[in-house]
Amino acid sequence: MPARTPEEIDVLFQKFLNSGDVDGLVGLYEPNATLIGGPDQPANGTAAIREAIKAFVDMKPQIDLRVEQTVLAGGDLATLYSTWTMIAGSEKMTGKSVEVVRRQADGTWLFVFDDPWGRGT
Questions:
Q1: Could you give all domains of the chain from N- to C-terminal order, each with its CATH number?
Q2: Contact (Cβ atoms closer than 8 angstroms) between residue 19 and residue 31
Q3: Over the stretch 28-83, which tens digit does the pLDDT of each residue have?
Q4: What is the DSSP letter of 37?
Q5: Secondary structure class of 59 (helix, strand, coil)
Q6: E strands, 6-121, in order
């Protein structure tokens, strides 16, 4: 299930994370994308992103992710500004993300850069 709009990528991220679908999550990223897994913890490329996401999914989190603003650049790039709340066990976290997504040749959208804490908490 690919993202057909920039905003849909966050809908799919929420769905896949809440269901524990590591393959679905990794499939939302370009092969050379970067995911910021934590402070000073960039994961570059599919293998590193899979490792970071797997550790995250193992916590069995439930996330509520909302796009606040989308800024299109030239039709094929977009920056998403989102807020999220996540519960993992007894821990509750919140953040404000910055995500860059790119339209692929088939018209779907994938993450190029994903920083869940890009705008703080």
A1: 8-115 (3.10.450.50)
A2: no
A3: 999 999 999 877 789 999 999 999 999 889 999 999 999 999 999 988 999 999 99
A4: -
A5: coil
A6: 29-36, 42-44, 62-73, 77-88, 91-103, 109-115
